[in-house]
Design brief:
8-stranded parallel beta sheet; globular; binds the ligand N[C@@]1(C(=O)O)CN(C[C@@H]2CCCCN2)C[C@@H]1CCC[B-](O)(O)O; binds manganese (II) ion
Length: about 300
């Protein structure tokens, strides 16, 4: 497998300091060494640098609009370039607002794609429904064709074109949604496997149904957007919005292994690792090493050897 790594040290999609340290923490924990060990051809494109627009006042309730819009435009261009290099793009966050640029750039390069969003949260608030104003909880709303009419004009966001159809999106791990998000997902008929379905069906059946659902019509390239807070906070506590009752380490790995086996994985995000949110060094170590293990599984590592 040929992998192109992009570091996106960005935190303005949410209020907590430290998530911009995610990319270098994940690298320091041995990501590149691990990928090389398992035979991947790896190119590290380094960390993006982001401008800090002055006077970035909230627009309505939405915070850091100009910074988030500008950062994601830059990320979109970078991901598109990695795809045009013929590599699977791997974006290391940084907060989950970065999925806007990552998925946008991926779609610009490959056309229609399927999205698997692994997360405790749906991140599908619109700028008008968000309870917090944090754009990391709104990312999917900018990307879905079906929500285009619900998105107001925002500064530095005019470049964003919706690029995902609701029928091409699957959520896994949901357990902390806002009312408006739940309403939206039901209204659009988005396929979702909350932690209830994970418990009821088991992760193997969830992945079987996910792939059957996404591949039923045509096999599209898959974009996997993995929020580390999908995993149970007992395993990955160093993150901004932990929610109890998450995926086990094993379930998290299985999801990555299964998607890797489809051969359709074309873009990956690993976001919301925040080294400053661990109570102890062990908290941080466990979070970062789990992130590395999930990524090694995305790119071919199997527990059987
Ligand atoms: N829906 C949210 C939003 O801010 O829009 C509100 N929620 C926090 C809140 C905590 C108390 C119980 C109810 N939920 C976080 C989520 C965004 C997560 C972004 B992600 O990237 O971490 O997934
Ligand atoms: Mn998220
Ligand atoms: Mn989340
Ligand atoms: Mn988060």
């Amino acid at each position: 497998r040929s992998v192109g790594i992009i570091g996106a040290p960005f935190s303005k999609g949410q209020p907590r300091r430290g998530v911009d340290r995610g990319p270098d923490a994940i690298r320091a924990a041995g990501l590149l060494h691990g990928l090389h060990e398992q035979g991947c051809a790896v190119k590290d494109y380094g960390n993006l640098t982001f401008e800090e627009p002055p006077d970035d006042e909230p627009v309505g309730r939405v915070k850091h609009v100009r910074a988030v819009g500008s950062a994601n435009q830059r990320l979109s261009e970078a991901v598109q370039a990695v795809k045009l290099d013929g590599r699977v793009s791997l974006m290391l966050g940084g907060d989950h607002s970065l999925a806007i640029g990552s998925i946008h750039g991926h779609a610009a390069a490959v056309g229609q794609l399927a999205v698997v969003w692994v997360d405790a949260h749906a991140d599908v608030n619109t700028p008008l429904t968000t309870p917090t104003g944090n754009i990391h909880g709104q990312s999917m709303s900018f990307l879905l064709h079906e929500l285009h009419s619900k998105i107001p004009i925002l500064p530095n966001f005019s470049w964003v074109k919706p690029c995902v159809s609701a029928k091409d999106l699957v959520y896994i791990g949901l357990r902390d949604l806002d009312p408006a998000e739940h309403y939206t997902l039901k209204l659009l008929g988005v396929k979702l496997f909350s932690m209830t379905e994970v418990d009821r069906l088991g992760v193997a059946r969830v992945m079987e149904e996910t792939c059957d659902y996404l591949c039923a019509k045509a096999k599209k390239p898959i974009h996997l957007s993995y929020d580390i807070d999908a995993i149970d906070p007992a395993v990955t506590p160093a993150t901004g919005t932990p929610a109890v009752g998450g995926l086990s380490y094993r379930e998290g790995l299985y999801i990555a292994e299964h998607l890797c086996q489809t051969g359709l994985l074309s873009g990956v995000d690993l976001v919301e690792v925040n080294p400053l949110r661990g109570r102890t060094k062990d908290d941080v170590r466990s979070t970062v090493s789990t992130a590395v293990d999930l990524l090694l599984a995305c790119f071919g590592r199997l527990r059987e050897g």
